């Protein structure tokens, strides 16, 4: 994020964001991504945060850091869940719903115009055909976390252990999903960046009053 900002890149597409780990209220295990996004004015496009993290606390922490969070509706109406990486639904309502790339670009443009130093997170749910059922992932994650605790995989060893165990328990489904969501996020991010360039061009052509 820092390098993107220094290079003048305003839209940054990635797979997933870090977050507050389960039990983070005691361990204070919070990914540095969240703090960095709170002080770096870039818009991150990701498929939410990893499913095994504490999504409600992650969203609360982002709010505390002044990060605006929204989820692309992706053709849906009404209330939308913040995605859980490999799964479209998390059971946690998104703070804001974004209906298209132009709307996302307009938010970035407005934030930039105001000179705010915090970033934005636009969650792009994994495509339906690649999404793993929430019930399946919940069961897999519970088992993976339990095995991590038994193996004393803590600190820097925790996330790699859990990811490897989830890959094993899903028979590699998460690897396929990872590839699909990264591609989808890059496509979405590219469209948002194009819309942002259009808005910036229109602004330059509008005479000051």
Your description of this structure?
Strands 1-2-5-3-4 form a 5-stranded parallel beta sheet, sandwiched between helices. The model has no long low-confidence stretch (mean pLDDT 92). By secondary structure, the protein is of the alpha/beta class. It has helices spanning 2-6, 24-27, 32-37, 55-64, 101-114, 134-150, 158-169, 173-205, and strands at 11-13, 43-46, 68-72, 97-98, 120-123.
Compact description:
By secondary structure, this protein is an alpha/beta fold.
**Sheet of most strands:** 5 strands, parallel
Sketch the topology as an H/E string, one letter per element.
HEHHEHEEHEHHH
**Terminal-residue CA separation:** 35 Å
Number of strands: 5
The overall pLDDT average reads 92
Q: Which value, in Å, is the CA radius of gyration?
A: 18 Å
Strand order within the widest beta sheet: 1-2-5-3-4
Low-confidence stretches: none
Relevant terms:
five-stranded parallel β-sheet, single chain, 209 residues, alpha/beta
Q: What secondary-structure arrangement, pairings included, does this model have?
A:
Layout: H1 2-6, E1 11-13, H2 24-27, H3 32-37, E2 43-46, H4 55-64, E3 68-72, E4 97-98, H5 101-114, E5 120-123, H6 134-150, H7 158-169, H8 173-205
Parallel strand pairs: 1-2, 2-5, 3-4, 3-5
